[in-house]
Amino acid sequence: GNSVTQMEGPVTLSEEAFLTINCTYTATGYPSLFWYVQYPGEGLQLLLKATKADDKGSNKGFEATYRKETTSFHLEKGSVQVSDSAVYFCALRHSGNTGKLIFGQGTTLQVKP
Amino acid sequence: DTGVSQDPRHKITKRGQNVTFRCDPISEHNRLYWYRQTLGQGPEFLTYFQNEAQLEKSRLLSDRFSAERPKGSFSTLEIQRTEQGDSAMYLCASSYDRATNEKLFFGSGTQLSVL
Q: What is the pLDDT of residues B58-86, one digit of tens each?
């Protein structure tokens, strides 16, 4: 069945460091891929998305490229800030236009000043 | 846009009791979703509504769980005869399906603890 696997956390970085959070998926067909972020005490928010192979999603300095050949959607940011500290979830939506998503287990990012 | 609101934020109950959670979606959104999230895991889909119709239910949703959206606005999720394994964060999300790319807006969740 469809599934998403993320690198385990927590990931601890110093401010201005480079961030990579790995995400790989298993799915039939052509899923859409998403990164959601959950800040402390808040609901999940969509960070970025990509709907087809080789698409790059980007937002707030974060980027992720849909790599069908490696079934990956790794999240990157060139220079993290303390305010980026949160839990990041990779997710996929199988073909079909609904909000039924399959999430990875989440990766906690801690950025220290 | 006041966002998706969920009530209560926290619920502590004893095993065997019934509990009910409420979700108020963003007013113009016609789709409403329920997810469950346990500690250290990502959210898992439970069910969703389009207007008042419940269109899909996950196998995770046992017979003890029932969800309603009677007028196509707010929704309730009831758990009967709660078990300790029901302890989790219950998340609600809403969306507008006629948008070019459907985007989910999540509430902050209801944290259920079954003692």
A: 988 899 999 999 988 999 999 999 999 99
Among B3, B40, B45, the residue with its CB nearest the CB of A101 is B45
Residue carrying the six token digits 């509430």? B107
Q: Which of A6, A23, A25, A44 to mutate to test the interface with B (most CBs of B within 10 A)?
A: A44
Q: CB of A103 within 8 Å of any CB in chain B?
A: yes
- CA B99, CA A85: separation in Å to the nearest integer? 30
Q: Which residues contact B15 (CB under 8 A, 6 or more apart)?
A: B82, B83, B84, B114, B115
CB B10 within 8 A of CB B19: no
Q: What are the pLDDT digits (tens) for A78-106?
A: 999 999 999 999 999 976 667 789 999 99
Are B9 and B91 in contact by the 8 Å Cβ rule? The answer is no
Residue A86 sits at the chain B interface (C-beta within 8 Å): no
Q: Which of B81, B79, B59 is nearest to B68 (CA)?
A: B79
Measured CA to CA, the distance from residue B91 to residue B94 in angstroms comes to 10
What's the rounded Cα separation, in Å, for the pair B83 and B96? 34
Residue B59's CB: how many other CB atoms inside 10 A?
Answer: 6
Q: Is A44 left (phi over 0), alpha (psi -120 to 50) or beta?
A: beta
Minimum-distance CB partner of A89 among B42, B93, B102:
B42
B41 residue type, one letter = Q
Residue in A43, A51, A106 closest to B106 by CB? A43
